[in-house]
Design goal:
The complex is a heterodimer of chains A (about 110) and B (about 575).
Chain A: H1 11-14, H2 20-30, H3 33-47, H4 50-65, H5 72-86, H6 89-105
Helix pairs in contact in A: 3-6, 4-5
Chain B: H1 14-23, H2 26-32, E1 35-38, E2 42-45, E3 67-71, E4 77-80, H3 86-93, E5 99-102, E6 108-110, E7 115-117, H4 120-135, H5 170-175, H6 194-204, H7 207-214, H8 229-240, H9 250-256, H10 260-271, H11 283-296, H12 314-319, E8 321-329, E9 335-342, E10 345-347, H13 353-358, H14 365-372, E11 376-377, E12 384-386, E13 391-393, E14 395-403, E15 407-412, E16 415-417, E17 422-424, E18 434-436, H15 442-449, E19 477-487, E20 494-501, E21 504-509, E22 512-516, H16 518-523, E23 526-533, H17 544-550, H18 558-571
Parallel strand pairs in B: 10-15
Antiparallel strand pairs in B: 1-2, 3-4, 3-5, 5-6, 6-7, 8-9, 8-14, 11-14, 12-13, 15-23, 16-17, 18-19, 19-20, 19-23, 20-21, 21-22
Helix pairs in contact in B: 2-4, 6-11, 7-18, 8-10
Classes of the chains: A mainly alpha (about 110), B alpha+beta (about 575).
């Protein structure tokens, strides 16, 4: 997916040009940094007990609805907001810091 | 190989059944090559084709984040989200293509039913792929494998994985009163090593040392030295407080490579080569050399200064005090003062008949201290050079305690190793359980000397810092917690230690620990006495809030005070 040349007035081409978010994501993935960050995040979330907490939440949800009445989709939809809310601030801060450092190092 | 699909509750969806009937396990096995195991042990799917784009993307919308699925039939990658699912559209367009595999998790997914499905043969394939990828990891000689390291992992002392803790049924019993005290464990005699065993028992129950080592303040992982008394102490504390009541046996630990008792001896021997040998050594010498050894191995060399009084290593923080000696010229009264650091106070026992009349007999500890701090006339052959007279004069010398240590160790000089005399003094010495050192402080001694006159001190603040009242300030009150006593003759005697724990006294005779009455301890022939500042003692009657306030007057730094408070709180 290449960024096309920006021709003024040509709104059609804007769809091909990656947004900032996509560009960052691309950079992260290409350099392999995203994998490392994902692994780090997984480690931190296990350490702080987040994973165990979420597991318990999933179990509770499944038990309440009945095992055969839950699809993976419903579970994800129900648990995701809780999961996002439960991530500790210091973990968020650390990850953001690493991303920032990485972007600075590749002179983004 | 019991898996989900064989459990009675699970029923595969019709699409899975259909797929299996048509393709059996061919598709799964083809996938096995594509399954890699990423740390921390998560199986994932990696496409082996070398595209210019290493990132898997949805064939329809090129999305690369979120959940991506690869069709089992045609390997088309599609994205999935509850709002728009290209995976679903793919399955709807092409019948028979309902099944896909989650790229990140290696799980089967049915695009029509919108749910994960499970199959025993598929799971078997994943397990095989997992096993073969593990074989590629570095493996140690004992057959264990190491998971690939996360490059971002901080180099910290990784302990066990986090698990929330619930007390087991045994835990309340351990903390209950009446149960044997924590850390009480016999030490095997390895050939006249009772001199070491008795001192080690005292050290193991010195409250600030206990807090320090049990609080992991000596970091074994970061320790550079191969022979380190600090590491051996750490091991010993861990073993003593492990809850195991069997005595340490060097042979056992030789097997399990926890040679700490043996290695402690070994390290100490290496350190104090002149004292090495299997003969009975002096317990006090051992104490001094153990303190020096732990100081030498202190992990932060910048804390170790030439002056022991300022050294911040744990043993000096605990044992180091300051003794002041004043030498007064008899001609002009000029006094020269010197402060020397010390880790213990050695007390003479002998006294002449005249001294016995004037001073309290040296058969009590307080009497010995009186002797220690009394003004002593230096003989004519010991004249010192007086600066104000500018000539040699006869002088009077007086000792006092300038700064009290946290743990005060008294050494009763029972053994005489001079050229003419080689003997032991058996005199019984009476000692108190609670000791107030206020009257032996430099401020009090100086006041006595000058008869309560206002003191024009040598340098402001010379005597400031000591409490002017000299009476019961918290930092001059001490509680006895350990006694090392010697019985028998000079050669071939025996050392035992008495420990005061939980209001009771325990006799530690090498591997044998017995509870004894207070009268037994009082009657013993004390050789070394260990006192700790009252506010840190487990035995004092002060409640925890009081002790917390008193911490402010102590010479410890905050960290050790806090961990000590915690340790004491647990014991209480």
């Amino acid at each position: 997916m290449r960024a096309s040349l920006h021709r003024p007035g040509e709104d059609l081409h804007k769809r091909d040009e990656p947004s900032l978010q996509e560009a960052i994501n691309l950079k992260l993935v290409e350099s392999g940094e995203k994998e490392k960050l994902k692994d780090l995040l997984r480690e931190r979330l296990i350490e702080c007990g987040w994973k165990d907490e979420l597991k318990a939440q999933c179990r509770a949800f499944t038990r309440k609805r009945g095992r055969s009445n839950v699809t993976i989709d419903e579970l994800v939809r129900a648990i995701t907001p809780k999961g996002r809310a439960l991530v500790p601030d210091d973990v968020k801060a650390e990850l953001l810091q690493r991303i920032r450092t990485f972007l600075l190092s590749v002179q983004f | 190989m019991v898996t989900k699909s064989s459990s009675p509750c699970y029923r595969p969806c019709e699409h899975l059944v259909d797929y299996k009937s048509k393709h059996s396990t061919r598709g799964f096995r083809a996938l096995q090559r594509c399954i890699v195991v990423l740390p921390p042990g998560r199986p994932s799917v990696r496409t082996l084709s070398c595209d210019e784009d290493p990132v898997p993307r949805c064939a329809s919308c090129a999305k690369s984040h979120g959940r991506l699925y690869a069709c089992l039939i045609c390997s088309t990658i599609s994205c999935y989200s509850s709002s728009s699912s290209h995976a679903r559209s793919h399955a709807l367009e092409l019948p028979g293509h309902e099944l896909a595999i989650d790229l990140d998790r290696a799980e089967l997914f049915c695009c029509i039913c919108n749910d994960q499905v499970y199959d025993a043969d598929f799971d078997w394939v994943v397990v095989c792929a997992h096993a073969s990828s593990l074989a590629k990891c570095t493996s140690f000689s004992n057959g264990r494998t190491a998971p690939p390291l996360n490059v971002y992992s901080r180099k910290r002392n990784r302990g066990a994985e986090y698990k929330p803790w619930e007390p087991s049924s045994k835990d309340p019993l351990v903390l209950e009163r009446g149960a044997a005290p924590l850390g009480l464990r016999g030490l095997t005699n390895m050939g006249s090593t009772c001199f070491m065993n008795s001192v080690l028992q005292a050290l193991l129950h010195t409250p600030p040392l206990r807090s320090y080592f049990l609080g992991h303040c000596h970091n074994k992982a970061a320790c550079q030295s191969k022979v380190c008394l600090g590491c051996d102490m750490d091991d010993m504390f861990a073993a003593a407080f492990s809850g195991d009541r069997t005595p340490y046996s060097p042979a056992q630990f030789l097997y399990r490579r926890y040679l700490f008792l043996f290695s402690f001896l070994n390290s100490w021997w290496q350190h104090a080569a002149n004292l090495a040998g299997y003969e009975q050594q002096d317990a006090h010498d051992f104490f001094i050399s153990a303190v020096e050894g732990i100081h030498a191995n202190s992990q932060q060399p910048e804390l170790r200064k030439g002056n022991d009084a300022e050294c911040r290593c744990i043993v000096h923080r605990v044992f180091s005090g300051l003794l002041r000696s004043d030498v007064t010229c008899t001609a002009c009264g000029f006094t020269s003062t010197k402060n020397d650091p010390c880790v213990d106070i050695s007390l003479d026992l002998e006294s002449t008949a005249l001294e016995k009349q004037i001073y309290a007999s040296s058969s009590t500890l307080l009497g010995c201290l009186d002797r220690f701090t009394r003004p002593e006339r230096l003989g004519s052959n010991e004249r010192f050079f007086c600066e104000s007279c500018q000539s040699r004069q006869e002088a009077v010398k007086q000792m006092s305690v300038r700064k009290l240590p946290v743990v005060l160790c008294f050494h009763v000089k029972r053994f005489e190793h001079s050229a003419k005399n080689y003997r032991k003094v058996d005199t019984y010495v009476q000692f108190p359980l609670s000791l107030n050192m206020a009257c032996y402080l430099s401020s009090s001694i100086a006041r006595l000397r000058h008869g309560n006159r206002l003191i024009f001190v040598e340098g402001k603040g010379e005597l400031g810092g000591d409490n002017d009242s000299g009476s019961t300030s918290p930092s001059s009150e001490f509680e006895l917690f350990a006694v090392v006593s010697h019985s028998g003759k000079l050669d071939g005697g025996h050392y035992v230690a008495y420990l005061r724990l939980g209001g009771e006294w325990y006799k530690c005779d090498d591997a044998w620990i017995t509870r004894v009455g207070e009268s037994v301890v009082r009657a013993t022939q004390a050789y070394m006495l260990y006192y700790v500042q009252r506010s840190l003692s487990d035995e004092s009657s002060t409640t925890i809030p009081e002790r917390f306030n008193q911490h402010q007057t102590l010479v410890l730094d905050e960290k050790i005070g806090y961990t000590s408070l915690l340790a004491d709180a647990v014991q209480a």
